[in-house]
Specification:
The protein has about 90 residues and is of the alpha+beta class. Helix content is about 30%, strand content about 30%. It has a single domain, classed as Double Stranded RNA Binding Domain (2-Layer Sandwich). Strands 3-2-1-4 form a four-stranded antiparallel sheet. Helix 1 packs across helix 2.
Length: about 90
Amino acid sequence: MATYVYEADIEWVEDERIVTPQAFPGCFGGGASIQEACESASIALKLFIAEYIDKGKALPQATFHNPPRCILCADVDETFIEETRVTAAP
């Protein structure tokens, strides 16, 4: 299993918090609290990373501000990639 660490931005949109790892366009998580939004974004990040690995795409390099804004960690292994693989329709 490998652990991937990326920085994310936190935004407040009305009553919801949105957490977006900028290295992965379209990847985000949301929730009523920062904790919920970070947990949701971590799951989304894990799915994005698994898809990149499964398709043989190079992962974006992690970059961090000083100090970092929000740090997300995602543990991804072959079992997770297999379980979440999207198969094409026949």
